[in-house]
């Protein structure tokens, strides 16, 4: 800070020197001030002389009976107290900000996980880390990956079978796709499993491209040249459940997302060829080379502890 007014050498005084000056004013002795600051008296004397040179002011009259502030020293001491108070406020504010950052957790989760599993995980997290503040973004599995890559979240949860190599992964549960229909649908009365080819040829109610549910279905039916043109394709599960219950078409959805409808007999799960790979592993994911913050570790443990196979 060259040319700063009021400084002989253009260098700001350091905070310990200002603390020492205040200590001299409060104790009336350079020796007692040195003891308070836990430094030797020669070091204290040298530090104050350096402060005087930097300010271009005579601050202290020294005598065998003690040390006394000069008029300029008294004024500078008052200024020093104000500076030290502001420095203390800065440190306290930074500590509070650091604490909020350390306890803030940004999570992105695919729709099925966010709706069906995340509420229970967050309850457990609240018990283990009551000061944690979680911001949850709900998107599809590909959206979770992109949010992680852009640095918009600390960790994510996906249901897609393919996880990019630039992400760490940790299994937190299992899921499977269920083919569900209205009780009055013709498939509800079938006694034999639906063959893979018939399922592939049937227009279904499906999630949007990029979702883990859609990706799992497409991979399962790839050997049959993929899925037919969907009867309805949406980025939300609830309207697909309703459409299936109204008999619009069969729906391919996570069994976690249709548990209530199956229990209440609003939907019926149809048996399909058991060779179709409709099971999938749910994963927590985060960028390689990045350590998870403490709240994320708590959430990961909560998710892993609840791992149950549907």
Would you give an account of this structure?
With 310 residues, this protein is an alpha/beta fold. The protein is built from 12 helices and 11 strands. The strands form 3 sheets. Strands 3, 4, 5, 6, 9, 10 and 11 form a 7-stranded mixed beta sheet that branches. Strands 1-2 form a two-stranded antiparallel sheet. Helix 1 packs across helix 2, helix 1 crosses helix 3 and helix 1 crosses helix 4. The radius of gyration is 34 Å and the shape is rod-shaped. The relative contact order is 0.13. The N terminus is likely disordered.
β-strand amount? 15-25%
Unreliable residue runs: 1-9
SS field, number of helical segments? 12
Q: What summary fits the major beta sheet?
A: 7 strands, mixed
Which whole number gives the mean pLDDT? 88
Derived structural class: alpha/beta
Helix content class: 40-55%
Annotation keywords:
two-stranded antiparallel ribbon, 12 helices, 44% helix, alpha/beta, seven-stranded mixed sheet, disordered N terminus, 310 residues
Give a brief outline of the structure.
The chain has 310 residues and is α/β, with parallel strands linked by helices. The chain is built from 12 helices and 11 strands. Helix 1 (15-27) packs across helix 3 (41-55).
Question: Topology, please?
Answer:
Blueprint: H1 15-27, H2 30-37, H3 41-55, E1 60-63, E2 66-69, H4 71-103, E3 104-110, H5 111-116, H6 118-128, E4 133-139, H7 141-149, E5 155-158, E6 167-181, H8 196-201, E7 205-207, H9 212-220, E8 232-234, H10 237-245, E9 251-254, H11 259-263, E10 268-270, E11 279-287, H12 294-305
Parallel strand pairs: 3-4, 3-5, 7-8
Antiparallel strand pairs: 1-2, 5-11, 6-9, 6-10, 6-11
Helix pairs in contact: 1-2, 1-3, 1-4, 2-3, 6-12
